[in-house]
Design goal:
By secondary structure, the chain is of the alpha/beta class. It has eleven helices and nine strands. The strands form two sheets. The chain has a seven-stranded mixed sheet. The protein has a two-stranded antiparallel sheet with strand order 1-8. Helix 7 packs across helix 11 and helix 8 crosses helix 11. Bound molecules: S-adenosylmethionine (SAM). The site of S-adenosylmethionine has 23 residues, from strand 1, helix 3 and strand 3.
Length: 279
């Protein structure tokens, strides 16, 4: 149990883990909060948990205390590895430390099913990591849930409904293949050092079958085109796809005068199917 381990402040001091902004390092030292995040990830018994950016290991300890069969922790900062090895020694055989860049790591190959992904994400790579998980092939994916800390504003973009400013690429990609919801907010002062804004823990549960049929790359392409010029009408914004948008817009049951933020996820899937059919 983590009771055998020293307080996180002591670990940080002893290993010289002064937070580096370039690595998105905002550490959580409050064990009540790390425990709350671990519990929010659902039952961990019998699950491998992939954690991105364990840092000094606060959330890692909580995941292990909450019954994870094994935690596979991917950390880019070499300074953290010795501190994490102490955690590994306190939980024999249950913590695998992977030193490297999470964006370049084949996480599916590291974890056995059933697996969950839990992380207090480095904000500078939070969006590309999420998009990568959502583009996993095959689908349904190797993980049964994602429980992730984002900046509040990013969390709002993930769960946004059509019609508002927050609705865009992230909402469409996330809601197409998963059911996302904001679980709770975390005050900036809970972190060391505190980031500029409030954070939120978001849960995404993969849908067994996506909301509608679409090729992931085609969907990504039409969504990028439509929201790339979000203030323009679809008949103008979709021109960047290099073909007449009228047929695609009709296939999606939309009007050429509508704007991207007015389309449902299902309509974007219909656009993607029409786009892919013309290729
Ligand atoms: N999990 C710790 C906690 O909650 O206190 C640290 C969270 S901190 C917000 C983000 C962590 O991600 C840092 O430890 C940082 O070094 C690590 N990190 C940054 N970029 C990374 C990358 N590309 N791959 C893996 N880890 C990364």
């Amino acid at each position: 149990m983590s009771g055998a381990l020293p307080p996180l402040r002591e670990v940080i001091a002893r290993h010289g883990l002064a937070a580096r902004k370039a690595l998105g390092q905002n550490f959580l030292l409050d064990l009540n909060l790390t425990g709350r995040i671990a519990r929010a990830a659902g039952a961990l018994e019998g699950h491998d948990v992939v954690e991105i950016g364990p840092g000094p290991g606060g959330l890692t300890r909580a995941l292990l205390d909450n019954g994870a069969r094994r935690v596979i922790a991917v950390e880019r900062d070499a300074r953290c590895i010795a501190a994490l090895e102490e955690v590994a020694a306190a939980y024999p055989g249950r913590l695998t430390i992977v030193e490297g860049d999470a964006l370049k790591t084949d996480m599916a190959a590291l974890a056995d099913r059933p697996a969950r992904i839990v992380a207090n994400l480095p904000y500078n790579i939070a969006t590309p990591l999420l998009v990568g998980w959502l583009q996993t092939a095959p689908w349904p994916p190797w993980f049964s849930s994602l429980t992730l800390m984002f900046q509040r504003e990013v969390a709002e973009r993930i769960v946004a409904a059509p019609g508002g400013k927050a609705y865009g690429r992230l909402a469409v990609l996330a809601q197409w293949r998963a059911r996302p919801r904001i679980l709770f907010d975390v005050d900036r002062r809970a972190f060391t050092p505190p980031p500029a804004v409030t954070s939120s823990v978001v849960e995404l549960v993969p849908r067994e079958t996506p909301l509608a049929v679409a090729d992931p790359q085609a969907l990504e392409t039409v969504v990028a085109a439509a929201f790339g010029q979000r203030r323009k009408m679809l008949r103008a914004s979709l021109k960047s796809l290099g073909r007449d948008p009228a047929a695609m817009i009709e296939a999606a049951g939309a009007l050429p005068t509508q704007r991207a933020e007015e389309l449902t996820v299902e309509q974007f899937c219909a656009l993607a199917r029409a786009y892919a059919a013309e290729r």
